[in-house]
Amino acid sequence: MVQTKAEISRRNFLKSSSGVALFIGISGILPQLISCKDPNKIKEQLAQQPLTAWVKLSEDGLITIYNPAAEMGQGSMTSLPLIFAEEMDADWSMVKVEFSPQESEIYGSPGWNPGSKLMFTVGSRTTNSYYNVMRKAGAQARYVLMNSAAKHWEVPIEELTTSNSHVLHGRTNQKINYGALIPFLEMQETLPDFSEAQLKNPKDFKLVGKDIPRTEIPAKVIGSAMFAIDIRLPEMVYGVLERGNLHGSKPKLTNEAEILAMDGVVRIIPLDYAIGVVAKTLEQALSAKKSLKIDWSDSKASGHNSQEIYSTYEKIASQKEKGKVIIEIGDVSKAKKTAAKTYAVDYKNDYVYHAQMEPLNAVVKVAEDGGSAEVWVGSQQGMDTKLGVPKILGIAPENVKVHLQYLGGGFGRRSMNDFVEECANLAKEMAPLPVKLIWTREDDVTYGAFRPLSLQRLTANTDFKGNITSFSHTVVGDGGNLVASAVTNDHYDIPNQFAEWREASNGIRLKHWRAVGHGPNKFAIECMLDEIARDQGLDPLHLRRKLMAKAPRALATLEKVAELSNWNTPSVNGRAKGMAFVEHGSLGTGVCEISVDRSTGNIKVHHFWIALDAGVVVQPDNVKAQMEGGIIMGMSSVLKEQITIVNGRVQQSNYHDYNLLRMQDVPDSIETVILESAEVPEGVGETATPMVPCAIANAFLRLTGKPLRHLPFSPERVLQALNS
């Protein structure tokens, strides 16, 4: 449906305002949008086309709060509206939650880049970046209601209070439900710009910090929750693409006439890197795809062998010329000259696939005149909330409406819009028929966008007392921040630090994978500390305790997890414990207990303990669930998962040869303790996963005296380490 001029003008008006938009009930209220010289004109626009912003209130007291973030199982559909409801003093039993429109100028957060607003559910920043936005918006909604009640009752607003969706006047014993206030609501020319001190004191929270059931769980349990894979539209056709397993290769179809003659095939649509097939049913499309005969060109990835490339990376790490400097504190070279001992170790990690549960898919419907489009997709959104579709179709962003759906797993993969853009390319050719594009699991494995392969060369120096005086970290790999993030040691008191990234590109598709660079780089850093501690005859706990002396919050997690895991009590025979500290928004220290089957090389994780400081915790039970999920995903990637590439071609194709953790491999227990904190909430979705490789490797070192330095810890590599 083509958007009206009124809609476009309202959007531009909102974009020019700095306040929080609010739509309540039939009459409509736009707080802080009264900078317009003619308020009546705004009312006229609203009467024509109601604006939906943060909250909608109906006469029966039902409150609809809009969630601007993707919901992929991490709980944002509850946590963000809960923050709003807390400050609004809403009756949570009368709250329902819906996805907000994908309009970043209204619903975006400045949490990623001050000065701009993005809708981007990645990096464990959602709660952190929206915390103050939602608190202030909720407080302003409460103020509108209180101010309207004050005028209705003709009493000072200062005499009013709110509780459980009611405004109360204690002196006259009057009480009115928020819904009942709708006929008396009035616009204000200005609203208070609430400061932190004017918002609720966390000790007075009634919803935040309590175990509130997640809003979307009932629908998921009974099967009514809509994922993009569930979308069916009238006259919808199905699209699939053959992309091959050599990244960057160009296709030449040699049997086009044969494919077009197949039952149900509607069209063949070639792309630079793939051949698209559109058919009446998914089965017909997949059948045609199997029959495609394609000649593939060479590409930049040709000749790349993932298990042989490390020797090249080692040479790059040994070059005298520096790479891109990430951090430089003190003088590492000077510290090395006066060092009592120098340690130099290389750590490696292979490619890893996202393995999200729901296959990548999208539905796009382009209008017959090509001037507008609708998209149904599960996306982690991005720098462009219209997901690249306007550029593909050559239309204005305001003419693309995105219907965000639940995501069946993201882990960073669904912040990449390639699958949406592919669907838009097919839909452009098929307009006005809606097109549903589905990636098969084989598509996603062979043409995946992987966590990069990389090498980390660490060099550390100690003085004659065993103190670490310098720490140097060289990362070799492709992807910039994908490999080079998380190399700083802000919570460790090391006077001289240096970190750099040296690029090595092999033409393989890469993408953010849960925790991004924290996985490989924290693995290297935390393992290096334990190797130094072992050589110096120190307890890893004591070494970290000393390094964290100036970081009290980090130290508190260390002390708590040592207590939780009974660190000082020896494990039973055949087991050992290892620890690791990770900062990824929130601060966490983890300890695991493992055993090793010395005949098979299989590592068994028996227990995992975590102490976490995440600032103000909105949903404690959900935080624990995220930590548990992060640990299990970390174990899967560390013990099972591996993408290998031979002559540029991905060797794995599905779960029969890309192994995942099984139920029998899950620890007997995962215990999380959340430390009390009044700090701004921090992300928790990516704190647990990077703990796993270093904690397991450090437990293995403690148990066997042998280091594990190459991810994943396959049985073959474990046996090799044991026999070294």
UniProtKB/TrEMBL annotation:
Q: Which Pfam families match?
A: MoCoBD_1 (PF02738), MoCoBD_2 (PF20256)
Q: Does the keyword Oxidoreductase apply?
A: no
Residue ranges annotated for the Aldehyde oxidase/xanthine dehydrogenase a/b hammerhead domain, each copy included: 222-300
**What molecular function terms (GO) are annotated for this protein?**
oxidoreductase activity
Q: What is this protein called?
A: Isoquinoline 1-oxidoreductase, beta subunit
Q: Where do the TM regions start and end?
A: 12-34
Q: Specify the domain of life of the species encoding this protein.
A: Bacteria
Provide this UniProt record's keywords sorted from A to Z.
Membrane, Transmembrane, Transmembrane helix
**InterPro entries, per database record:** Ald_Oxase/Xan_DH_a/b (IPR000674), Ald_Oxase/Xan_DH_a/b_sf (IPR036856), AldOxase/xan_DH_MoCoBD1 (IPR008274), AldOxase/xan_DH_MoCoBD2 (IPR046867), AldOxase/xan_DH_Mopterin-bd_sf (IPR037165), N-heterocyclic_Hydroxylase (IPR052516), OxRdtase_Mopterin-bd_su_IorB (IPR012368)
